[in-house]
Design brief:
This protein is an alpha/beta fold and 120 residues long. The protein has helices spanning 24-35, 55-68, 82-94, 108-115; strands spanning 5-10, 13-18, 42-47, 73-78, 100-105. The longest helix is centred in the middle third of the chain and has 14 residues, at 55-68.
Length: 120
C-alpha cells in the first residue's frame, strides 16, 4: 500500500484518501489496490496532497479506472486546492459514460452528502 494513501469503507462508501502529491504511477497503483476490495457503487476520492497530471495522463487514469470498475457507480472527487480541483474536473469529463455519475467538490462533507443522495 502506498504510505501516503489510505483506503477505508464508511457507510458503504469506499473512501480513498491521498495525502501527498501524487504521480501517475501512484494513482494507477491506488486504483488497482482499491478495486481489489469488494465492489462499492459509491466511491469518494479525497486528494488533499495535490495532483498534477497532463491531459494524456488524465485520460490514462480514466481508462484504467473504467477497466477496474466497469459496473455503474457514483464517484465523488474532493480537491481543495485549485490545481487539484481543476484536474479532477478534467477527470470527471474523461470518465463520463452511461450509468456513471461523477462530481467534483471542494469539501468532503458536501461530497458525502451527494454520494448518499442529498443535494442532487
Amino acid at each position: 500500500m502506498n504510505p501516503n494513501c489510505s483506503i477505508e469503507v464508511l457507510q458503504d462508501v469506499l473512501v480513498i484518501r491521498v495525502a501527498s502529491r501524487t504521480q501517475l504511477g501512484d494513482i494507477l497503483d491506488i486504483i488497482d489496490e482499491a478495486s481489489a476490495i469488494q465492489h462499492y457503487a459509491r466511491r469518494l476520492w479525497v486528494v488533499s496532497g495535490g495532483l498534477n497530471l497532463s491531459p494524456e495522463q488524465i485520460d490514462e487514469v480514466a481508462k484504467h479506472g473504467r477497466n477496474r470498475w466497469p459496473a455503474p457507480s457514483r464517484v465523488a472527487y474532493v480537491g481543495p486546492a485549485d490545481l487539484t480541483f481543476g484536474i479532477m474536473r478534467m477527470l470527471e469529463v474523461y470518465t463520463e459514460r452511461d450509468g456513471f455519475d461523477t462530481r467534483v467538490f471542494r469539501e468532503e462533507r458536501d461530497a458525502l452528502a451527494w454520494l448518499h443522495g442529498c443535494g442532487d
